[in-house]
Amino acid sequence: MNMVKNLSALLLFSFSCASLAGTGFLKGEQTSGLNKICYYEGVSGTFSKTVGAATLCPLSADDGRGSLRIGNSSLQRQTPISNTGFLSGEQTSGLNKICYYDSARGTFTKTVGAAQLCPLNAKQ
Questions:
Q1: Which range marks the domain in which residue 66 is found?
Q2: Helices and strands: H and E segment counts in the chain
Q3: Residues 33-50: pLDDT tens digits?
């Protein structure tokens, strides 16, 4: 009986952690130079994705917290040119922190966990 309780608790914990992952829906956008920052509202809070300025923001996006994701695949480059930016600000929403970076192509963002520090510089 004790083993059944432990297994039930483990399954419940697994599903509750997975529920933090999910899809967010577009709530706004901001254009900066050659970049467009798309803001999404999801279960874990607001998160962002950076796309090219001429690109439409998708109506929904994955917040990158999926349990089946390997590595940092949600941070795929949207432009073929490497672009280094330096931390210019941050905004915390729920379990997410949006880090803002200024670069030669304009501002871009990177979303990390709320308890994490924003890297001082990042590549787009």
A1: 22-123
A2: 1, 8
A3: 899 999 999 888 899 999
The C-alpha atoms of residue 79 and residue 115 are separated, in whole angstroms, by 28
**Does residue 11 lie in a domain region?**
no
Count how many Cα atoms sit within 13 Å of the Cα of residue 124 in the half-sphere of its side chain: 29
H-helix or E-strand containing 35?
strand 35-42
What's the total number of domains in the chain? 1
Distances (CA, A) of 35 to 8, 50, 69, 95: 47, 7, 25, 25
Q: Quote the longest CA-to-CA distance of the chain.
A: 62
Residue tagged 């798309």 (tokens):
38
Q: Is position 8 within any domain?
A: no
User: Per-residue pLDDT tens for 85-97?
Assistant: 999 999 999 999 9
pLDDT above 90 coverage of the chain, percent: 52
Q: Is the pTM of this model over 0.70?
A: no
Q: Is residue 6 part of a domain?
A: no
